[in-house]
């Protein structure tokens, strides 16, 4: 049971995509191959397979969540072409 062009048109309409006839034909074939690959995966027996994790989450090294590079306010303000106290002064752009 493959995907039909009508199904591709329906999905394209839902996604508000305008497809040419060639694009519809190409997507029909591509999506059919993708769905076929998933059908093959569904036939595999995964009952004895253990879940995989890249590392042990319980033993993962965690660092303390803290800021290490605090902004230097004075150094930043020294570079401002125009300022008012500890604030940057910028030209008004909205009337």
Salient structural properties:
two-stranded antiparallel ribbon, 2 strands, mainly alpha, flat
Can you walk me through this structure?
By secondary structure, the chain is mainly alpha-helical. It has a domain at 1-33. Helix content is 40%, strand content 4%. The protein has helices at residues 5-14, 21-42, 73-78, and strands at residues 83-84, 87-88. It has a two-stranded antiparallel ribbon with strand order 1-2. A hairpin with a 2-residue loop joins strand 1 and strand 2 (87-88). The longest helix has 22 residues, at 21-42. The protein is flat. The mean pLDDT is 87.
End-to-end Cα distance: 63 Å
Biggest sheet: strand arrangement: 1-2
Number of contiguous helices = 3
Shape: flat
Series of H and E elements: HHHEE
Largest sheet: 2 strands, antiparallel
Oligomer: single chain
Low-confidence spans: pLDDT under 50, at least 5 residues? none
Measured by DSSP, the beta-strand proportion falls in: under 5%
- Rg estimate, integer Å: 29 Å
Q: Provide the helix percentage.
A: 40-55%
Total number of strands: 2
Structural class: mainly alpha
Summed over residues and divided by their number, the pLDDT gives a mean of: 87
């Amino acid at each position: 049971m493959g995907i039909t062009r009508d199904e591709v048109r329906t999905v394209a309409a839902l996604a508000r995509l305008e497809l040419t006839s060639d694009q519809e034909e190409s997507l029909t074939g591509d999506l059919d191959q993708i769905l076929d690959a998933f059908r093959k995966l569904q036939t595999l027996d995964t009952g004895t397979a253990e879940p995989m994790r890249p590392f042990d989450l319980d033993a993962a090294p965690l660092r303390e969540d803290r800021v290490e590079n605090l902004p230097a306010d004075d150094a930043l303000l020294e570079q401002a072409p125009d300022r008012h106290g500890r604030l940057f002064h910028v030209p008004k752009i909205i009337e």
